[in-house]
Design a protein that fits this description.
The structure is a homodimer of 462-residue chains.
Chain A lengths: L5 H5 L5 E15 L3 E7 L7 E6 L5 H7 L5 E10 L7 E12 L14 H6 L8 H23 L3 E2 L5 E2 L11 E3 L25 E3 L4 H11 L1 E9 L12 E10 L3 H22 L1 H10 L4 H10 L3 E4 H10 L16 H11 L4 E7 L15 E9 L3 E8 L4 H10 L8 H8 L5 E7 H9 L20
Parallel strand pairs in A: 3-5, 6-10, 12-13
Antiparallel strand pairs in A: 1-2, 1-4, 2-3, 4-5, 7-9, 8-9, 10-11, 11-16, 13-14, 14-15, 15-16
Helix pairs in contact in A: 4-6, 4-7
Subcellular location (chains A, B): Cytoplasm
GO biological process, one term (chains A, B): asparaginyl-tRNA aminoacylation
Keywords (chains A, B): Aminoacyl-tRNA synthetase, ATP-binding, Cytoplasm, Ligase, Nucleotide-binding, Protein biosynthesis
């Protein structure tokens, strides 16, 4: 007999004489003549209540083994439930133990700390919280593909291993097959990277943007969605060494078109997860972040405000606030400023644009004032920056000046310059940190808790 | 005015008084009173024919600049085409050069070798062949997500950086932030990996399977789709150091269920690409591989045959063939054997299962004969193996024996063993190399030509 997933059983429109469920015991309550067993198979938050009568052969022995964490296979009838809180329950005709859970099973009792659950990252998806997080993670990833594919964007796998550094800065991981203990040496005694696997120094990518630009200049509209890496030694709740990033790049699109795309994108993702992960989001709203749903509504319902960096600085200066980090024109905004703009001043998501040239990388398009560039950051309540992007410099001569000013050698970017030499076009793009968006839609506060197996300084378990 | 993509213009159901197209000049033919300009924007294979009358202001100067590779913006009318081969063409009212192409533009002439085009991987997506390849790549990736999401599978991002080695073998890339020239040393003089970023030796993953198993044992049905790495020094047309892999893992599924899933998967992908990339596939059938469409039909129309490894060896032995690599029970099959089975003996895709234990990794389920394991390979005509998978060993004691026999330390796999200790379940999965599947559906023969920027020994350009 074919297995039915618990999610599909809950969605049944009529009783069924015969159904097969397979999953893990979450809880069991025994009464005199029967037991309630909650079977969860991870297909949805809610388990299925199984009623096992004590008339079943081997009842005592079976129930003894059917502790929390045991895997079971249950045949029976799907019937309307008398109890509150569920439409259907299953009356067991057969009840098989597939695998017992050893008495040391760490998820037997509730109320473990998130820190402890990180240490058992291989088991935590069996908990309500992490089951919900990783179902939403899967759906959000799919919604990202849907959004772009429906709009004619092509998915590009930009390389993970790279010899170039998109930002001209960035702390990178080295990728190598050289013997660490005794690396080969050149005649002058330096390490001979010419004998490394790729015949040069190579690293893990920090962004696929430059490569995505080459594809946008051929296929018009493209996006990347892949892992990116930072070898920053920062142990915060918002940083991981390995995370996933989405980077659309659009030819013939200016900064304002880019803002429109970013706004549609954020709204689409929030609406999609709302629709497809309703039960999981309800759980987060109850147990993780009571303001979650109000915050998501906030994003869905209002058009994003737009304000130039110069205006934003004026607003901050005139606010009368005491800032932990005082801010003036030319400074980077800190989280406190970004959150003030979104949460208190505009009271909605806000896109800040035209940042000082000195704060931004070489590839952003220079404005006519010569002082600012066509950069944009989308700030949302509760999180701050969720998207950063720009219109790219498409003028070959200006790009060359910018590179020189940033101390970059043209020979390292010959192919990037070629895009401006052969049929250059105005084009724009942005990057969204996937985990940051996931934290935004779930309310989960630590990035370690939205990644299956997080990589952070000192930690690469599993 | 809003830009229309060429793809959407071709699909128009009626003429339009006003349309804006933006893209790159592919070809231009001049007659006495007008020019034909073919505009391609990468949204589809076929460009749009633009008719520019010589009465347009600055006609001569514009046409002088509108050489192959130049970017243009054209406003005009979409009208029924008189010419053969297209339904619509555009009569230009305005014609703007956005960016000229320098005279050195390497794609001006046709007939470049694939080798040369690899050297200009940043420009080759502007050619017919590579535009088609990367559109199909994008669609195939999306179809993979659709297939699994429609079936209730959750997408899991297994880690890229790992301290463990799935196969117990595999040549891996080291990931490190240690100073290559002067690494820190422990007291005994060895490299002190405790001071590396992750406080241990770490590598790029060769498979996400073991981590995916932990999620299947919580969410039931999961899949991965991400980059994987091999530091093998093999310069063949089928190997790359960085490639993408799909790995579904299903709880409560045995080897035969796994075969069913693999068969549906391959057929779904072929049918999807057929439907959504018809023009690109027609191009491949004409210019890349004349037998492509027959081969794809072959896969779609017939049920896959199944045959045990033992039967397969008998077939090969009785075939009367002279093999380059003679084969007997206990040997790995070579490409010539796999292709003989699929192309000549069964004349359809074939799933070979129950391989000798000695040929396979520690995690495969041992059969009652003690000699074979529940492994399977799906072989397709023209390619050979396209999928490899197995039912996993769910019995704790047998798994421990297998690990000991493979010389693996239990302490390195404590979390993997935990899955068998706490509610173990029969489960199965497989891996498909994304690029191999892409080569199968496009007929492109070299893996370097289906990856945006390929990473191979000695090569990590762009």
């Amino acid at each position: 007999m074919q297995r039915t997933l618990v999610k599909d059983a809950h969605n049944s429109t009529e009783p069924r004489d015969s159904i097969l469920l397979q999953g893990w015991v979450r809880t069991r309550r025994d009464s005199k003549t029967f037991s309630f067993v909650e079977l969860n198979d991870g297909s949805c938050l809610k388990g299925m209540q199984i009623i096992v009568q004590n008339t079943l052969p081997d009842y005592e022995a079976l129930m003894h083994k059917a502790g929390t964490g045991a895997s079971i296979s249950v045949g029976g009838k799907l019937v309307a439930s008398q109890g509150a809180g569920q439409k259907w329950e299953v009356q067991a005709d057969t009840f098989e133990i597939i695998g017992e859970a050893d008495a040391s099973y760490p998820l037997q009792k509730k109320g473990h700390t998130l820190e402890f659950l990180r240490e058992i990252a291989h088991l935590r998806p069996r908990s309500n919280l992490f089951g919900a997080v990783f179902r939403v993670r899967s759906r959000l990833a799919y919604a990202i593909h849907q959004f772009f594919q429906e709009r004619g964007y092509f998915y590009v796998h930009t390389p993970i291993i790279t010899a170039s550094d998109c930002e001209g800065a960035g702390e990178m991981f080295r990728v190598s097959t050289l013997d660490t203990d005794k690396p080969p040496r050149a005649e002058d005694g330096s390490v001979d990277f010419a004998s490394d696997f790729f015949a040069r120094q190579s690293f893990l990518t920090v962004s696929g943007q430059l490569e995505a630009e080459t594809f946008a200049c051929a296929l018009s509209n493209v996006y990347t969605f892949g892992p990116t890496f930072r070898a920053e030694n920062s142990n915060t709740s918002r940083h991981a060494a390995e995370f996933w990033m989405i980077e659309p790049e659009s030819a013939f699109l200016d900064l304002f078109g880019n803002m429109d795309l970013a706004e549609s994108f954020v709204k689409y993702l929030v609406a999609d997860v709302r629709e497809h992960c309703a039960a999981d989001l309800e759980f987060f709203g109850k147990f993780v972040d009571k303001e979650l749903n109000a915050r998501l509504d906030f994003v869905l319902q209002r058009p994003f405000q737009r304000c130039s960096y110069t205006e934003a600085i004026e607003i901050l200066e005139k606010s009368g606030r005491k800032w932990e980090h005082p801010v003036k024109w030319g400074d980077n905004m800190q989280s406190e400023h970004e959150r003030f703009l979104a949460e208190e001043h505009f009271k909605c998501p806000v896109t800040v644009y035209d940042y000082p040239k000195t704060l931004k990388p070489f590839y952003m398009r220079v404005n006519d004032d010569g002082k600012t560039v066509r950069a944009m950051d989308v700030l949302v309540p509760g999180i701050g920056e969720i998207i950063g992007g720009s219109q790219r410099e498409e003028r070959l001569d200006v790009l060359r000046e910018n590179m020189a000013a940033h101390g970059l050698a043209e020979k390292d970017y010959w192919w990037y310059l070629d895009l401006r030499k052969y049929g250059t076009v105005p084009h724009s793009g942005f990057g969204m940190g996937f985990e940051r968006m996931l934290m935004f839609v779930t309310g989960v506060a630590n990035i370690r808790d939205v990644i299956p197996f997080a990589r952070t300084p000192g930690s690469a378990d599993f």
